Structures are given as structure tokens and as C-alpha cells.
Automatic annotation (TrEMBL):
CS domain residues: 1-75
Ranges where the SGS domain occurs: 60-133
Protein's name in the database: Calcyclin-binding protein
GO biological process, one term: response to stress
Classification via CDD domains: p23_CacyBP (cd06468)
GO molecular function: S100 protein binding; tubulin binding; ubiquitin protein ligase binding
Length: 133
């Protein structure tokens, strides 16, 4: 990982690597302090093999993966929708979970739209698109 930053003194860089996180602190760069922290990495690293190298125009952070393979992202991301293969589960539950995730992750306009649709559906205000066929 590269951090573009000039005027860094190697002695003023603190690095803490843990199996699932990293925390890099850079002190007194032209009177400012910087920090790069990733509290939950995508997968495990080997802290003893990780290092920080200061170059004239950037800082190079080398992380050593504990297992082979490509990382989709450096940050760990929770799956918002986890597929369920329970045969006895209500088929509408998957749609309800999807709507819940959209509501929780949406902006204010999205929340208003979903809330209105939900209220209309529960009160019977929505027209049946198949009525009259």
C-alpha cells in the first residue's frame, strides 16, 4: 500500500500490525500528524513479516498475507444479504430482508419512498396490477 507524503522521517513513523488490522502513525510532517488505520482487514496478515519503508515522496506499507489468494478489498466487508437455503423459511422473508437492507443503507429519500410503499401496501391503498385480467 502506498501513501503519498513528502518530508517524512523514518524515526517518526510508528507501525502496529496485528493479524486482522494495521495502524500506522506518522508524526511531525511539516507540523502535522497523520494516521492510516484499518481496524478490520479483508483477511489475516503475518504481523512479523510486515514492514513500513519511507521513501522521499511516499511511504510503502508491505503486508504479508497469511494465506494465498487475491483480496477483493483491503477492508473486510460484511455481506449484507446472506443467502439462506432453509426450505421451511417463508419465501417472502428474502424480499423483506432485501427491503430492510435497502432501507438501512439508503438515503433519506429512499427511506421515505420505502416507508410510503410499505404503509400503502399494509393499508390496501395500492392498486392490484393484475385486477381485471
Amino acid at each position: 500500500m502506498y501513501i503519498s507524503l513528502e518530508g517524512v522521517d523514518q524515526d517518526k513513523v510508528q507501525a502496529e500490525f496485528k493479524p486482522m488490522s494495521l495502524d500506522i502513525k506518522i508524526h511531525d510532517v511539516q507540523g502535522k500528524n497523520y494516521r492510516c488505520a484499518i481496524p478490520k482487514l479483508h483477511k489475516e496478515i503475518v504481523p512479523e513479516k510486515c514492514k513500513v519503508l519511507v521513501k522521499p515522496k511516499r511511504i510503502v506499507i508491505t503486508m504479508f498475507k497469511s494465506s494465498r489468494g487475491n483480496w477483493v478489498d483491503i477492508h473486510h466487508k460484511e455481506d449484507k444479504i446472506k443467502p439462506s437455503f432453509e426450505k421451511e423459511k417463508d419465501p417472502m422473508a428474502g424480499i423483506m430482508d432485501l427491503m430492510k437492507n435497502m432501507y438501512e443503507g439508503g438515503d433519506e429519500e429512499m427511506k421515505k419512498t420505502i416507508a410510503k410503499a410499505w404503509t400503502d401496501a399494509r393499508s390496501g391503498k395500492t392498486a392490484d396490477p393484475l385486477k381485471g385480467l
